């Protein structure tokens, strides 16, 4: 497992294992964990935007084919650089994969509960996921909680890191506003397998369901949400900063809520770093 993948397994909010202990178990240097990551350069940001557009259109593309397509389009790039940028963006090719790694210490993988299930009423099943959103001179991560039956976006948050805290914020807002579902479905990302996130669900008496590794069809409705959002809004408007992105997402999500005849999504709070805000 690569260093970025092992670093993503860290759970800073873990109630039992300290950061020191987790670093020892994962074979990580603590200095690398605490060091502030360097901002992406302009070349990386341009490539990440191109990779995001290709991946949104063809989510089955891996780093090898992604590098080949970019080279065919006149962007010479090697596979290792594509792999590094895809890890930074939090994306990987969708498709069945062998079980080559285990969850981080304290992270449990729950079975997928939705196979063959009829989902026909609100608050029966909710789902969540994280996606990468490019902005002028950087990028942010978006997490959303949706209802499977109505397709309504119940809550969302923006963040400049993939830390579990912004996922918990979105989850807690959805629970406070709309009650609780019978089942909550996620992928096997380290944010959603963390004790901090699953603990909120278990405390509320909600059954936890998780997709199989690389099985995008297990969470198909939120994958469709990301595709619609990017093609109908993000790629057309090229938001300059986090403030513009937040306002644009609020408008788009409210409109989508009306289109589905459901309660409109709230204007979520986000943790937008100052470096992503455009100066007046």
UniProtKB/TrEMBL annotation:
GO terms for biological process: DNA integration. InterPro entries: HTH-like_dom (IPR025948), Integrase_cat-core (IPR001584), RNaseH-like_sf (IPR012337), RNaseH_sf (IPR036397), Transpos_IS3 (IPR048020), Transposase_IS3/IS150/IS904 (IPR050900). It comes from the Bacteria. Residues 118-280 form the Integrase catalytic domain. SUPFAM superfamilies: Ribonuclease H-like. One of its GO terms (molecular function) is nucleic acid binding. NCBIfam families: transpos_IS3. PANTHER family: TRANSPOSASE FOR INSERTION SEQUENCE ELEMENT IS904 (PTHR46889:SF7), TRANSPOSASE INSF FOR INSERTION SEQUENCE IS3B-RELATED (PTHR46889). This is IS3 family transposase.
